[in-house]
Amino acid sequence: MASFSLPPIHDNPDGGWGPSSSNLPEQFKFKDIPYAPYSKSDKLGRFADWNDPSGDNRGATTSIPSTQNQRGGGPGGRSRRDGNQAFGSGTASAFAYFHVEDESSFSLVDNKAAPPRRGGFTRGRGNTRGTAFNPRGNQRGGRGGFNAGGRGGQRGARRGWRDWEKSNRTRESSVAISPQWAMLEEIEFHRLAKLRLEVDDPEELETYGRLFAYDKSYDRITTKTEKPLQPVDRIKYNTTTSDDPVIQQLASKNTATVYTTDVILSVLMCAPRSVYPWDIVIVREGNNLFFDKRDGGPFDTVTVNENASDPPTDPAPPNPNNPAEKAAVPEPPSINSATSLSLEATYINQNFGFQSVIEKPPPVTIDFAHPNPFYGPDETEPLASCGYRYRVFDLGITEDEDIKICVRTEVDAYSPGQGNPHEGHGLVTVRALNEFDPRAQGAGGAPDWRSKLDSQRGAVVATEMKNNSCKLAKWTVQSVLAGAELMKIGYISRANPRDNTRHVILSTTSVRPTDFAAQLNVSLANGWGIVRTVTDLCMKMPEGKYVLVKDPNKPVIRLYAVPMTAFTTEEDEDGEGYEGEEHEFTS
């Protein structure tokens, strides 16, 4: 009979549970046991990965955290695609168990039929149907054809590749912040989104300009009957608030407290949606506030895919501290960079508005009470169809408050048969969305307009509402401020994705601004609350000049006090540079 002896009992003199560390035998001190890092976010995945293409895991019966399995940090300590090792992947193999027997004869029998392959290309057929990446590969001359199909499959599999780099892209501010400027206030967007102010219908003071009738034949354009976009020489003014002679007259009569234009006001009312930087110059004279724009600033151009998950970007400027970069000859900007796309979209919007009205004799025009206030006697080029409505909105919360804002609003045409344009019935604003290259960075996953506009317009509209949320919201707010009954939106694409000088009109849609605002989830009450908050903030300050700046990389706006001489000399040079770029584009 086997003998049995009790193991020694180690008493803990410290009075705690279990043996003390001094009496613990060597074999229980975890000596020579490797340390394995552990993350609480790790989850247990497969017991053995039979589908691992990188090695033979038949004998591996260890549980591998799913985060390592997905990112390539398996038992072999493989590195992730970005070069950084997954957490704990280097030591996971220390606890793996492997059979010592020879399993070379082991095989897995699978009698299931292999599923049909989807995507990619079929040998011998090229890319006949295109891919989700380039759906019109062979339809329009086979751009890329076979190669485009191959790249499409690879890039589709790498969706989200290096997404962490997108957050590291920095943008430059729309205006250089001087160290001498004093920052007075900083407001986050989430605070702006909570503001509300209900405003009644406005009072119309004056009307200026002449309107042509909108050509309804543009409503019947389809992708099969596309029409080329033609450059038209017309003059249309975008004068800032302080330089407007009508506003100067109204301010001399103390008509309102705040004076601005619909372009500037819409940016402020839609500020929480903005991503790109902008700035508004605010001048206080007595009890009056003037919201101005800088010549050549962000208010003179139209953004493209500003709200896309990966919006278009501009190349980084050369580093002045690097002699090699400073001496290098700068390359011409890409036609798909943020600045080039912005100029292209501005060109498209202007010319589509000029082209879509009836000017052939006999033109049926609507003349407002006064002629265009900016058209001088020395001008020789014809005026574009444009009407200005100066309207006053009451921002008072109580009946005792006398805070009003005078806004110069614009309409582009009138719709025949929709009522009396003098009373605001039948007034139309004309805007245009543009498609560039769906394969370029910043396209935002937009579907091919030529194949989807007629059959799946809702998908195109939904994508544009996502990628251009801020731009569409600003256009809608401008139309509501002007009292327009309709907003015409043209869908204009490049004739060739590699050429940004020739465009075609693929379709036009009509929307009511108030209904479209509901679809975009645009709250006018929130916009008026932002305007009232900024107004109260500036009215607490002494007379002088201020600038409201949207941070280029954060959802924040800041108010700075600046000298009265700011934005008077250097900005003129910037304006000339912008005009030169625009002239080069329209020539």
Automatic annotation (TrEMBL):
Transmembrane segments: none annotated. Residues 1-28, 42-88, 110-167, 300-335 are annotated as: Disordered. Its main location: cytoplasm. Residues 139-155 have a biased composition (Gly residues). One of its GO terms (biological process) is formation of cytoplasmic translation initiation complex. It is found in: Cytoplasm. It comes from the Eukaryota. One of its GO terms (molecular function) is translation initiation factor activity. Signal peptide: none annotated. Keywords: Cytoplasm, Initiation factor, Protein biosynthesis, RNA-binding. Residues 113-138 have a biased composition (Low complexity). Residues 298-312 are annotated as: RNA gate. The keyword Cytoplasm applies. Residues 59-70 have a biased composition (Polar residues). GO terms for cellular component: eukaryotic 43S preinitiation complex; eukaryotic 48S preinitiation complex; eukaryotic translation initiation factor 3 complex. InterPro entries: eIF3d (IPR007783). Residues 312-321 have a biased composition (Pro residues). The RNA gate region regulates mRNA cap recognition to prevent promiscuous mRNA-binding before assembly of eif3d into the full eukaryotic translation initiation factor 3 (eIF-3) complex. Belongs to the eIF-3 subunit D family. Component of the eukaryotic translation initiation factor 3 (eIF-3) complex. mRNA cap-binding component of the eukaryotic translation initiation factor 3 (eIF-3) complex, which is involved in protein synthesis of a specialized repertoire of mRNAs and, together with other initiation factors, stimulates binding of mRNA and methionyl-tRNAi to the 40S ribosome. The eIF-3 complex specifically targets and initiates translation of a subset of mRNAs involved in cell proliferation. In the eIF-3 complex, eif3d specifically recognizes and binds the 7-methylguanosine cap of a subset of mRNAs. This is Eukaryotic translation initiation factor 3 subunit D. It comes from Piloderma croceum (strain F 1598).
